[in-house]
Design goal:
Length: 290
């Protein structure tokens, strides 16, 4: 079991205990900030070689037919810079790597798509390095799917719950006849009759809304040690707290995921929730709710 996490820049890399570092890239990543330049990518790749860390490019946008060729060109440039691993969600990206026989270094992350044993088996047979199991299903289902092997799981952090290619923040301000100065900013969305605050960002590629709490699974990982990767997401989390969280998961891998350390995790930030881990699945993919 290896820990991977996103990085915002290449400063203070030695303080990061994660086994794999995910970086953003202009045009390829679905975020609005923290893109690395070619020079920074070269330095990051060299750091990864010296310190035996996976360096992973974030290629998690969904591309249109008009955009996909440019995406291939950007990926080709990263390959020439020495990047080996790529996390992706668009199956067109898989086809590109498959034709180059480089698909064994891909990590499939479509957020909610891998919800059953069969889907996991397909992606393992397709030869990817790892695939992310949905964290919006009960623990018993995650355990069963993880038995396929090569599984990955997002175990801590805000979880993307909504995506639209429309620029919804801009549309809101246009509707209110107000100047929009907030594209590429991190905002909070609050429903009229609910207190929860949902992180929301708008980029040139669309609008993204995240859970109002940090999803956290810790002690349950004792039953999931067959996982290949676990992701600790740093989105909307300050660097100091992120490194404390990574340390606790590192301790868990080495010495056990104890209730004591789970309590320490809560002390860092108690806005955490187990999501759907202990809820019964009402409707499964392919079933009808007649």
């Amino acid at each position: 079991m290896k820990i991977i996490t996103e990085i915002k820049n290449i400063r203070n890399l030695d303080q990061n205990q994660a086994d794999g570092l995910i970086f953003n890239r202009q045009y390829l990543s679905d975020t609005h900030t923290d893109f690395l330049t070619n020079e920074e990518v070269i330095k990051l790749v060299e750091y990864g070689k010296i310190n035996s860390k996976m360096i992973i490019a974030n290629v998690n946008r969904i591309f249109t037919e008009q955009e996909i060729q440019k995406a291939f060109e950007e990926i080709y440039e990263l390959l020439n810079l020495g990047v080996e691993y790529f996390v992706f969600s668009d199956v067109g990206i898989y086809q590109y790597f498959y034709e180059k026989t480089l698909h064994h270094n891909l990590i499939y992350n479509a957020r909610t798509m891998i919800t059953n044993y069969g889907d996991a088996q397909i992606w393992k047979e397709n030869g990817v390095y790892a695939y992310f199991i949905s964290n919006e299903i009960p623990l018993e289902d995650i355990i069963e799917i993880s038995k396929v092997g090569n599984g990955a799981l997002n175990v801590y952090g805000y979880h993307q719950i909504f995506y639209s290619k429309r620029n919804l923040v801009s549309l809101y301000y246009a509707h209110r006849q107000m100047e929009n100065r907030f594209q590429n900013h991190e905002l909070m969305l609050v429903e009229e009759n609910r207190p929860n605050k949902y992180p929301i960002t708008e980029t040139p590629y669309g609008t993204y809304i995240y859970s109002p709490y940090k999803y956290a699974i810790y002690t349950e990982l004792e039953k999931l040690r067959s996982l290949k990767l676990i992701l600790i997401s740093g989105r909307f989390i300050n660097e100091e707290n992120l490194q404390k969280v990574i340390t606790l998961y590192k301790i868990g891998i080495e010495n056990g995921f104890t209730n004591e350390n789970m309590d320490k995790l809560r002390k860092i930030d108690d806005n955490i929730h187990s999501g759907f881990l202990y809820q019964k699945t009402v409707l499964r993919k392919g079933e009808r709710n007649d």
